[in-house]
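User: Hey, quick favor. My workstation is busy. Could you predict this chain's structure for me?
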Amino acid sequence: QLQLVESGGGLVQPGGSLRLSCAASGFTVDDYDIGWFRQAPGTEREEISCISSSGGSTKYADSVKGRFTISRDDAKNTVYLQMNSLKPEDTAVYYCASFRHGSACHIDPSLIDDVDSWGQGTQVTVSS
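Assistant: No problem, here it is.
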């Protein structure tokens, strides 16, 4: 059974940093493209970053480009999202997800339909 578990969320001041973790079980992260999504109250879930199964391709939404970095530790079977220069508008529940098909690492709203497994989410709140 494929399972993803996020951790690392919390309350941080504007300009601060957090690192989110997405631990996988039941599969290996180098077999799937993995994405990070977020959903703020009253908004749709949006993809903000992804990493390809090979690890050779990473993509970012314009809203986080230059501030967030996705990475992977195959030995720990875990994908990370390093978030720097956080802003109040980054406040949301953050989810990681595995895509059902390959070549899915693109920031494309339609690809949410290709998600195979979701984590439970971790809350990130940016506030002074």
